């Protein structure tokens, strides 16, 4: 964060000062929307959510070291009052970018954004000062908060950009115009909000490459026809990545190692280098190639990129997060979110990890699947059976029951159990899991299965 006075912030955000004794007081630390994450010298942005109103925590934020509160109304402590806190954060982030000049990398896609962002950050950090999105803070609040962590020494700014509906990426790229735009894939995540199918999702995701200048780079997944269809929507230079032979950044000699990890030969326009990832699942090859494509566009060599990928580790919780219990049970927590694409990838990765060990799947609903939701859940149930999972526990009524019925009807011997809620799933899993099992937990974030995964990962008493 570049130090800014409250006076400067007020001018940029169109704010009025309330209960401020010193207008020249400096904000020297990043901003936060959670009063528990405020750091001394920072700014607390009071936003009103469905369950919590940040204005109620203004005094706690000041007590925690915030210089002032960015608020929609006076709160009895030093505050910059604006009409729209979210809009003001965006204006402030855009202002900060005008004072520094990092290479801004924007990335989007239906699945894999956070893992790719984490891999890319670890590649670039070895080369120069890098700021990247924390966790999955990729929306209208999270993106400006990430930008506001940058300072004059920041060389690379890696911004995960989420899109729940058309226009979202146009708004985010307006705050932080990217020099490099990376599109991972087009799937069914958020299809309920975007339109009837993948073409509508592609229309929304393509807003990222439309925002690129002619001297920028559009990095497109050569293995995804919907992403390739975005080539005509950008003025930027195009660099293709993927496993296709036409990709300039690609993987050759892809193979699985004994720990369900993946190794391959990285091929770039400037050379080759061997890569062995520490993440489980063959689908990670695409994420690694996406990160490699960005690094290639930024001028890094193949050996340097491979070194970063080889050293990279999982950073974000709830994404194929592996915990080994003392009794030999392995819990794979993938409960941060779920779509058909990520569910398929996770199920296959866990079976590869398990080998001959017994496998248990604890699965909840995949949200925002529109009219195809029941059919897609049934498809996941059939996949559980086809992969020969030993036990399936579905969580919740409605679509998860379609998953359970499909798995049972497949006739592959999977023992199917249905839990009404997360607490019921935990009780069932605790009773059914045996020493040495591999347990896979996944659902959309609103289901709350992460709590079940964490409880199962705790050593048994």
TrEMBL record:
EC nos: 6.3.2.10
Pfam families: Mur_ligase, Mur_ligase_C, Mur_ligase_M
Keywords: ATP-binding, Cell cycle, Cell division, Cell shape, Cell wall biogenesis/degradation, Cytoplasm, Ligase, Nucleotide-binding, Peptidoglycan synthesis
Binding-site list for ATP: 109-115
Main subcellular localisation: cytoplasm
All copies of domain Mur ligase central, residue ranges: 108-295
Domain Mur ligase C-terminal: 318-444
Record carries keyword Amino-acid biosynthesis: no
Coiled-coil ranges per UniProt: none
Reported function: Involved in cell wall formation. Catalyzes the final step in the synthesis of UDP-N-acetylmuramoyl-pentapeptide, the precursor of murein.
Protein name: UDP-N-acetylmuramoyl-tripeptide--D-alanyl-D-alanine ligase
Organism annotation: Nonomuraea angiospora
Gene: murF
